Amino acid sequence: MFNIIYSEFLKLKKSYLFTTAVIASVFLPSIAFIVSLSNDYSGITSVLKYTLIKDYRANIEVNCFCFLYTVLFSLIAGYVFSREFADKTDNVIYTYPINRTKIFIGKLITLYIIISFIYILQFLAMYLSLCIAWHEFPSNNFIITDMKVNVYSLLMQFILVPIPILIANITKNIIFPVVYGVLGALSCMCAIAVGSVYSAIYMQFSPLMLPILPMYYFHAGDPIDFILTTISVVLTFSIFMFLSIYHYNKMDVN
């Protein structure tokens, strides 16, 4: 298994993927940092300052968890699982005396490592930029709560990843997973709009909203229907993971 993961990273090392991941991780924190530097916050009260810092963090996380990462992780999943078909090396790789399920799991672990790296880098970039822009480091409780939000959101991303993986396996290219990611980001935008107009509970009907729910729960205090979200998590992961592994083992090679 280690050799499979290691070989995947060697292949990714030669691609644009790591550069894209780093840029995407720091992009929104950098934009928020520039905007904060362009404003004059001198003379504001401590209460208002704390509110603005919370908004600074919330804006970055909403845009990352719901929009940017939906597209980015679909791109990465499509690349990891369709590269062999694009390079016409699938007939070589899948004739090795290695169980295809092991290859699938190795690729999945590689993908999970990349996603975790992006989350960690984004978290560090956000608080570094916040500290420089506001000349103040948030309290320990503030940071610990936000760490919980990011960990739970990361786990929800793990749940959703089998969807673009299945699309990449079926289509054997990177375009359709990216199209899925764009449409998913648009659906998240609509879900947030509906939730803001009516009730946040309506956002929980979409599995694609799972990564952002911890932010609303811990920071905004919005209630979560744990029965609904548990059913969504179990069904989404089990169905798409089963279909992904099944198709990966059954698909033909050139």
TrEMBL record:
Protein name, entry field: ABC transporter permease
Protein's organism: Clostridium carboxidivorans P7
Bilayer-crossing regions: 16-38, 58-81, 109-129, 149-167, 174-194, 226-248
Entry keyword annotation includes Membrane: yes
Keywords: Membrane, Transmembrane, Transmembrane helix
